[in-house]
Design brief:
Layout (H helix, E strand, L loop, with lengths): L2 E5 L2 E4 L4 E8 L7 E7 L6 E7 L4 E3 L7 E6 L4 E6 L8 E8 L4 E3 L3 E6 L1
Parallel strand pairs: 2-11
Antiparallel strand pairs: 1-3, 3-8, 4-5, 4-9, 5-6, 7-8, 9-10, 9-11
Length: 115
């Protein structure tokens, strides 16, 4: 059974940084895509950043130049380095891993940015 454990969320002042981690355990398939999605209060869950097994990345326009996604394939772990945080980055951040046949979500970690 696949289990995703997220960590690194918290409360930070605007301009600060956080690093999110998501480790996938019990994985019995090749993970192609890994990513982070954010859901702000009252809004839909939206893509923040994704990375493929080959290292190709994709970012939401709102985080380009501030956030960096990376992964450690040997550890089945994906990271999100969040710099220059803004109050509008406040959301629950969910990691997602999968491939063409499998799709798993983490439980979410809260990121709150105060002004």
């Amino acid at each position: 059974q696949v289990h995703l454990v997220e960590s690194g969320g918290g409360l930070v002042q605007a301009g600060g940084s956080l690093r999110l981690s998501c480790e996938a355990s019990g994985v019995g398939f090749s993970i192609n895509r890994m990513g982070w999605y954010g859901q702000a209060p009252g809004k839909q869950r939206e893509l923040v950043a994704t990375i493929t097994s080959g290292g190709n990345t994709n970012y939401a326009d709102s985080v380009k130049g501030r956030f960096t996604i990376s992964r450690d394939n040997g550890k089945n772990t994906v990271y999100l380095q969040m710099n220059s945080l803004k109050p509008e980055d406040t959301a629950v951040y969910y990691c997602r891993v999968g491939n063409l046949y499998y799709d798993y979500w983490g439980q979410g970690t809260q990121v709150t940015v105060s002004s």
